[in-house]
């Protein structure tokens, strides 16, 4: 315990020294505009007094440009995605056979805890913020986010948060948290390892970051829209970002409060979640009041991405645009009335259980509205099977499976049978990996020409899709079957499990592990494609790389991209500098 505290002191001291060194290097905190010729891109002068961006690492450490911050969010999220993916590959390798083979149960539990938190808080929320930061101002005709400096601060809270969450693995001699990502009490309140305290502090930082970002998005969409952008013609992605930000504003502060209470229980001796105090069930109520809206916080913007991309490659406008918007708002409202369906087996009042079951079933209706709208948009359309469209179609297919399996879990008698089995893991991952990650990949490929100026390798993009689609379904459909057979989740071994046929468990776990390795290969293809295309790819010839003008679907962000390309060409050919002289 003493050595762990010394390690934390040294780590925080080094962090303070680094922060102080960086502050001494920064002359001022002024806002930087995109480039010296930015006003010609937007058609109007910006409200900031600015000079051209500095070069090198200083640019990325001091930038408040929404596009740069979007790229920083995206790079951070993809690194976290890689870390979480490596963790789960190690876990799946351990589950290839029934006993303890490559790691101890305690290490497995640590990886299980960090994997869940990493994917939800360090990948899911930041990757959505990446798209939002880069494209929402472009889509609504704004110069930048409403609060550029707060936007930068919100991002720079994430790296120290990640280091704290992973601190149990990074600091020698310190044991990582083993609470699972839900941190249920009394286990999380009684575990002695300091790694759990670091994880709680890191989670708190990510929550503050998300809340600051949400306030910024709300203010930007309400106050920074171009005069031509009304609520009636606001794009669907911005609608989902606005709804998501509203959910964050109500959900994340509650999580922060619960985390502070848990930290006090662990270190000060309070009894918020002790048997003689509030009780262990209090944590579950507080956590899931945040936790289930968090699912929609993660899935609504990807739904917006899919609603935005599918029409572009179907050659027609989104069918039932208003109903998609209304269903988005309905999901936002209903998401706060379903949290206790995670707690049916805890013995809460049956009358409460029935009410939560009713709302949990009702929230499937707006999700179904979206699904039918996506299918109808594609119906009789001029479908082009580009990589973004393939990932969008894969999203719809996987989301249907994830949604239908969720309806079963929302039903009280079925939940009693399947609660805490691999069925829940399969359902949840069909939504997180099978839907959210697919929408993220669709967005990355669709907007790749904008933030790189180049085109990805199309053959590798399709290889990435098929490997990801096959790996996802092989991995998580096997988990659904394991759940039906009664295999409990969160077990490092299953040679002592008293339910179900062990041989069949082994075969299904092995098929899921093979699927995980296929997923890993697919993501390696993705990394190679993105990096090589960004560095050496073919430059796009014009501002319409997807031929959207042919179907009158050419949108604001590509018009901005075309103006930027024209501006770059003028500067390259020799344009007028600020003092009127010619420069090349």
TrEMBL record:
What is one process in the GO biological process aspect for this record? respiratory electron transport chain
Asked if the keyword Phosphoprotein belongs to this entry, the reply reads no
List residues traversing the bilayer. 69-90, 111-136, 156-177, 198-222, 242-264, 295-311, 323-340, 352-369, 390-410, 430-451, 463-487, 507-531
Cytochrome oxidase subunit I profile domain span: 60-546
Q: What gene codes for this chain?
A: ctaD
Key words, A-Z: Copper, Electron transport, Heme, Iron, Membrane, Metal-binding, Respiratory chain, Translocase, Transmembrane, Transmembrane helix, Transport
- Where is it predominantly found? membrane
**UniProt protein name:** cytochrome-c oxidase
The entry's localization annotation reads: Membrane
């Amino acid at each position: 315990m003493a050595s762990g505290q010394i390690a934390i002191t040294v780590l925080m001291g080094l962090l303070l020294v680094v922060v102080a060194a960086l502050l001494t290097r920064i002359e001022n905190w002024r806002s930087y505009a995109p480039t010296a010729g930015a006003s010609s891109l937007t058609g109007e002068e910006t409200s900031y007094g600015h000079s051209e961006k500095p070069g090198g690492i200083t640019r990325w450490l001091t930038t408040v440009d929404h596009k740069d911050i979007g790229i920083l969010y995206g790079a951070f999220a993809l690194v976290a995605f890689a870390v979480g993916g490596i963790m789960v590959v190690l876990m799946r390798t351990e589950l290839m056979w029934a006993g303890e083979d490559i790691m101890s149960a305690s290490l497995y539990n640590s990886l299980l805890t960090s994997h869940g938190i990493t994917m939800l808080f360090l990948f899911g929320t930041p990757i959505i913020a990446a798209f939002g930061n880069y494209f929402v101002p472009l889509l609504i005709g704004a110069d930048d986010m409403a609060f550029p400096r707060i936007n930068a601060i919100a991002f720079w809270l994430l790296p120290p948060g990640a280091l704290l969450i992973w601190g149990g693995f990074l600091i020698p001699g310190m044991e990582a948290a083993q609470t699972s990502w839900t941190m249920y009490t009394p286990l999380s309140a009684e575990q002695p390892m300091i790694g759990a305290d670091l994880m709680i502090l890191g989670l708190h930082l990510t929550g503050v970051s998300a809340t600051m970002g949400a306030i910024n998005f709300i203010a930007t969409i309400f106050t920074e829209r171009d005069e031509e952008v009304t609520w009636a013609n606001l794009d669907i992605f911005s609608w989902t970002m606005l709804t998501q930000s509203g959910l964050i504003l109500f959900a994340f502060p509650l999580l922060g409060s619960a985390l502070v209470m848990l930290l006090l229980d662990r270190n000060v001796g309070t009894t918020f979640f002790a048997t003689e105090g509030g009780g262990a069930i209090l944590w579950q109520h507080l956590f899931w009041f945040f936790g289930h809206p968090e699912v929609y916080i993660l899935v609504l913007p990807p739904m917006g991405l899919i609603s935005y991309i599918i029409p572009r490659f179907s050659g027609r406008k989104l069918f039932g645009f208003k109903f998609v918007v209304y269903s988005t708002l309905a999901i936002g409202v209903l998401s706060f009335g379903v949290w206790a369906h995670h707690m049916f087996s805890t013995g809460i009042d049956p009358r409460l259980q029935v009410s939560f079951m009713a709302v949990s079933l009702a929230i499937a209706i707006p999700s179904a509205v979206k699904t039918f709208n996506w299918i109808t948009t594609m119906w009789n359309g001029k479908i082009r099977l580009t990589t973004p469209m393939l990932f969008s179609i894969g999203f719809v297919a996987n989301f249907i499976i994830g949604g239908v399996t969720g309806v079963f879990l929302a039903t009280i008698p079925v939940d009693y049978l399947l609660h805490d089995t691999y069925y829940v893991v399969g359902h949840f991952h069909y939504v997180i990996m099978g839907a959210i990650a697919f929408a993220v990949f669709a967005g990355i490929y669709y907007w790749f020409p904008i933030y790189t100026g180049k085109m990805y390798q199309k053959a590798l993009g399709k290889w990435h899709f098929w490997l990801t689609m096959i790996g996802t379904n092989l991995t998580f459909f096997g988990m659904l079957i394991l759940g039906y057979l009664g295999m409990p989740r969160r077990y490092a071994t299953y040679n002592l499990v008293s339910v179900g046929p062990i041989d069949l468990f082994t075969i299904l776990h092995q098929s899921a592990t093979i699927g995980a390795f296929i997923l890993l290969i697919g993501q390696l293809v993705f990394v190679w494609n993105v990096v090589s295309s960004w560095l050496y790819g073919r430059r796009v010839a014009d501002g319409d790389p997807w031929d959207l003008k042919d179907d009158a679907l050419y949108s604001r962000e590509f018009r901005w991209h075309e103006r930027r390309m024209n501006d770059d060409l003028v500067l390259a050919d020799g344009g007028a500098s600020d003092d009127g002289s010619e420069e090349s």
